[in-house]
């Protein structure tokens, strides 16, 4: 029996976008929320490859240069540390490629970017029932239970935004 080939990690390319979008939808299915995922190829292409992208991506590819996993991330900023960090929006490895080291290599790549650029943090959220918690603990990631996430969306987001408009404080885009 041959052992699986170690994946290669590289920045995402425009030709990778359809595979990444498909994997985002696979991730939504895995997280039991497929009806909430509306990402299109056009949206992700624009986000990753516009003239001033705010989203970045890396893919894990197999020996045929086919994407088998991805990491989509963006910069955040710590006012306390005074430096940027990376926020990992999504990390996903296709079930057939799990155990190849793809997830670890994707995270190692982002950690390397942090270290080389002087960023102090690599952060992400994980759904509470995800079995990857053990893997994350094994690489030294710490659960931040003292921080509670909040989200404004839908009607609540529009209602709050209308208060800015009504007060005449709408900044220019």
UniProtKB/TrEMBL annotation:
Alphabetized InterPro entries for the sequence: Acyl_CoA_acyltransferase, Diverse_Substrate_AcTransf, GNAT_dom
Claim: Metal-binding is one of the keywords in the record: no
Annotated SUPFAM superfamilies: Acyl-CoA N-acyltransferases (Nat)
GO molecular function, one term: N-acetyltransferase activity
Pfam family, one: Acetyltransf_1
Record-annotated N-acetyltransferase domain positions: 7-164
Keywords carried by this UniProt record: Acyltransferase, Transferase
Protein family (similarity comment): Belongs to the acetyltransferase family.
Name of the protein: L-amino acid N-acyltransferase YncA
Protein source organism: Micromonospora coriariae
């Amino acid at each position: 029996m041959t052992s699986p080939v170690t994946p290669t990690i590289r920045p995402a390319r425009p030709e990778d976008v359809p595979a990444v979008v498909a994997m985002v939808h696979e991730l939504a299915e895995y997280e039991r929320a497929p009806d909430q995922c509306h990402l299109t190829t056009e949206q992700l292409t624009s986000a990753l490859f516009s003239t001033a992208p705010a989203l970045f991506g890396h893919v894990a590819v197999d020996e045929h240069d086919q994407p088998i996993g991805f990491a989509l991330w963006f910069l955040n900023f710590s006012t306390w540390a005074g430096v940027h960090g990376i926020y990992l929006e999504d990390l996903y490895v296709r079930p057939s490629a799990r155990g190849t080291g793809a997830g670890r290599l994707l995270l190692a790549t982002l950690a390397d970017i942090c270290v080389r650029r002087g960023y102090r943090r690599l952060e992400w959220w994980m759904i509470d029932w995800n079995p990857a918690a053990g893997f994350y603990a094994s690489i030294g990631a710490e659960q931040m239970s003292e921080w509670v996430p909040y989200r404004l969306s839908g009607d609540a987001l529009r209602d709050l935004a209308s208060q800015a408009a009504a007060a005449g404080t709408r900044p220019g885009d």
